[in-house]
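PROTOCOL LOG
Step 1. Enter all chains and additional molecules of the complex.
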Amino acid sequence: MSQSDHPRELVAQARRVRDLLRVSDGMMAKATRASGPIPVDPRSTPGLPGDVPGGAPAKAWSKDEVARLGVLLAAHQERLFATAAAGAGNQRVLLVLQALDCGGKDGTVRSIGGVMDPLGLHIRAFGAPSAVERSHHFLWRISRAMPPAGYVGVFNRSHYEDVLVARVRSLVPRKVWQRRYDEINCFEEAEAANGTMLIKVLLHISYEEQRDRLLSRLDDPTKRWKFDPGDLDDRARWHDYQVAYADVLKRCSKSHAPWYVVPADRKWYRNWAVANLLVAHFHEMGLTYPEVDLDVDSLKARLADGSAVAHPDNGGGRAKKNAK
Amino acid sequence: MSQSDHPRELVAQARRVRDLLRVSDGMMAKATRASGPIPVDPRSTPGLPGDVPGGAPAKAWSKDEVARLGVLLAAHQERLFATAAAGAGNQRVLLVLQALDCGGKDGTVRSIGGVMDPLGLHIRAFGAPSAVERSHHFLWRISRAMPPAGYVGVFNRSHYEDVLVARVRSLVPRKVWQRRYDEINCFEEAEAANGTMLIKVLLHISYEEQRDRLLSRLDDPTKRWKFDPGDLDDRARWHDYQVAYADVLKRCSKSHAPWYVVPADRKWYRNWAVANLLVAHFHEMGLTYPEVDLDVDSLKARLADGSAVAHPDNGGGRAKKNAK
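Step 2. Run joint prediction.
Step 3. Record the structure below.
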């Protein structure tokens, strides 16, 4: 067992990654003309241990590490679920994933979701709103999709599209999207106060990496169905999206609902980093198994001498609490 | 690569398992006083290869086999999703899991869900209906929870509770639950005609195995929250539940929506068997990747000379199809 197998080591590492990726005024102030509005290098690997091999071995390393972090995550998940099931708490987790096309949202869900308990996941994807959804306030469909207490929600796109695509493509008047930042902050603050641990992640890819990934979708007949020619129109507005994302990061990263920028050109780093962010936040929640008030001895006695009651015509008993 | 790595071998095996576990009039006619109403031995392992080691190694063997079947399942899942995404088909899969308490529904979802693509899963659990749900027809909440086209739904309990607990505990008059079998058959036939591949599985455990599992929940403080004293009341009605399940199997197993009885005392066999049932049904669907009508050359050209458009003040382009 290597040193980093130890949960304490894993948690310390997760906190380092979290601190490095967390959006702050200081981070955003570093933006230059060369960096673009989001001053994070999409090919960088903040917090990565120094001894990770480069190239193909890095992928295998990352997969193993994510699996190890996943063991921690699944354990936290069970305590989260147990706490809610026992009526001992109202907590839930919500991971919000945002990215430009090909940014790796699906791949991230596959990586993280694959090592967590599928029963406790509440994954929701937000496409273009339906006619009914458009007739409501933009947060209407979001509220309905929030994870119940005890669950880990994952939003594949989110309410932030309403200040990203809606802004860049002028789908609503400026006055409307401008007030949405405050509306989002109020909504998230209320959710946090109600027990939701919010973790918001921008998977940040470079213009060049997006080109390569779009090309590979065109080249592979089994990937071509993912290619939407409309994505090229969004690609043509690359800079506008960077500006819109930078405003989201500046205006909507709060202590109760922080934003993280995860460099995402290297998929194996991206998966590892997001797993670490989840571990750090789960650890912060300090979940335990609920105390359950059961008369264990008398229940055991009932089980021990219960073999006879399996016979026909031997029913009875109180109404079950979850019976209709 | 061993022989059974070959997809054709895996599919042949999956079909054998399916044929062995499928409910038929012949199967149900074998019921005797000794077997009880469901003539399947909960400790048996139908279809298991002869060379599987017993004891603890069987668990490791099963985990590896489920992972290998999972590779096939994830590939089918992607084709299912791609077909729906491209508007080329309306198919979906629904795995219905029923069992008495401790029958292993959660563990089965964890096993199968863990090797499939979390993005394409649509897992829904049905507890006691809420006041609003009770005010509707019993299939109302079921319809709303059906997987969308392209998804694999998993029901952890289902509409069958309305002819199981509702019958055994007399939650509704006999006249009401009696007509529900036909209502379920009509509902499922319509769903099948609309592209839903239905796979219904009873995880069949023995009375003794349930006792052991309930005891282990009481013994382990991290499992105690799962213990519901009301489960003992259901346990006292064991025989009534067996009769009610047998009627479900006899009346609601149709070619478009078959029932399977999976012996579930051995968890490793249960997981392996359910993975095989899914593979057999997916294979029957014969899914392929959709043909996509794209002008690949001109799209590649747009991508190749598109580096300039990333600059500020260089927007334009048509409205994206999934824009608001």
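Step 4. Note key features.
The beta strands of chain A are 92-99, 121-125, 152-156, 196-204, 259-263.
Chain A has two domains: 3-293, 297-324.
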